[in-house]
Every structure is written in structure tokens, then in C-alpha cells.
Prior knowledge:
Blueprint: E1 2-4, H1 16-23, E2 33-38, H2 43-50, E3 56-57, E4 62-64, E5 67-76, E6 80-85, H3 93-107, E7 111-116, H4 134-145, E8 148-156, E9 159-160, H5 162-171, E10 179-186, H6 196-206, E11 209-210, E12 215-218, E13 222-223, E14 226-227, H7 230-249
Parallel strand pairs: 1-2, 6-7, 6-8, 8-10, 10-11, 10-12
Antiparallel strand pairs: 2-5, 3-5, 4-5, 8-9, 13-14
Helix pairs in contact: 3-7
Amino acid sequence: MKRQLATGEDSSDYSRRDRRRLSKVRRQADDPVKVFVRASVSATACRRFVEPFRLRANALPYIVRGKPERAVLLITGSSMIIVISTSLNLHSRSRVLAETARNELQTLGAEAELLDISKLQLPFCNAGSCYAHPDVQHCASRIKDAEAILLATPIYNYDVNAAAKNLIELTGRSWQGKVVGFIASAGGQGSYMSLVGLGNSLMLDFRSVIIPRFVFATEKAVIDNQVVDPEIAGRIRQLAQQAVWMGRALSSPPADVN
């Protein structure tokens, strides 16, 4: 869908007709709406225009070939970030951390969903019939649709838990090119490097973009299903902010960029 758009540097310069058009854009639209803007319009002006409609614009308009005075701005629905809790423990601390991250994301205005795999019946990955399981297809679909993913996991034996690795094996290519952040809960500080192996495998296998900040909490940080450590709470907030920023920045590349 193509639209001609007025291009003032202040949102008040846009016409009422332009506003009515954007107000009708469906959130989570399958296809971005394309609008023409002046090539000189700034990214700040683009974002200022679309944000009141809970929409997103790609970071910068890209130039239309053969028409250097014009550019195209891609406008899509609001961001969706999925937080995955991989613990199977009914009294999981990492699940509390995941819920806290989900709440922080919603505070930032992102559409955030908590996917708790303890409530699913995921099979073991056997590289065959497992992929047809309804819960596997559900997880793969949610991961594929997300702009960014925060994976919350307990640390067992100096590594993420087996359920987290099984989930990734089951959902495979759904992680392709995704922005991924980590939240870990462990018994002590000695295993703080445990997330490196999983991050490396996601980068190598699926070209995932790993957020260069993670949350690592010990048992003292969560008491009675509440995050009581202000430093950990701050780290969760920072991770949520980075997930929103990186997810938006990488979600809508120009059409000629693969």
C-alpha cells in the first residue's frame, strides 16, 4: 500500500488526511504500509509522527531509486517481544524474573507476551515427528513473529537447563535473525559465564543478534516471588529497554537489504 505523505519536521505539519490514514493502520499488520516522504526528512520527525498511533517507522527513510528527492518510509504495527520461561520448577526464580521483564516491557509500551513452557507438553527433539506437535508449532510461530526474545533460564551444572536447549532444537529456524537477550537464575556467582555457549550457538546457527547485556541473579535476588535486589531489578529494566530499542532498529531494513 502506498501513500503520499506531507513531510514537515514537526508532527503538527502533517495533514489531517495523513493522520486519518495512519490511524487506520492495523496494529501487527502483516505487511508494512509504505508512505512517500521527502528525502531530507529526519528520522526523529518520522518517529514523532507515527508514535502517537502506536506504530513504528524504520530508522531512516530509504531513497527511491531514480527519484533522489523522494524516499520511502515503512510503517508497521507496535513491537511484540516474547519472554520465554524455560524452567519446569513450580517454584522457579527464573520465572519470576521473566514475569518482571514482561512487566517492564509493557511499561515501555511494547506488546510483551510470556511464554511459559512448563504449561506446555513439548516433546524431546528427535529430528522427526516432534516438529508436528501442536505445542512445538505454537512456540515456533510465536518466536517467529516476535521482534525480540528474552530467554529466562535456570542454570544447572554450569549451563542453561535442558528444557531451554530442547526448545531451541525444536523451534530451530524460527530464531533466524532474531534479537535475543538472556535472563539467568543460579545458585551462586561462579556460573555467570554459563550463557556464553548458548549465545554463540544462536549467532552461528541462526545469525541471531545477541543483546550485549544479560541478567544473572542468584537466589538472594528473588524472595517470595518478588525481585528484592534493586540492582537486579535495574538490570532487568535495562535489558527490556535494549530489547525494545534493538528489536525496533533491526525490524524493518530497506527492501534491498537481505
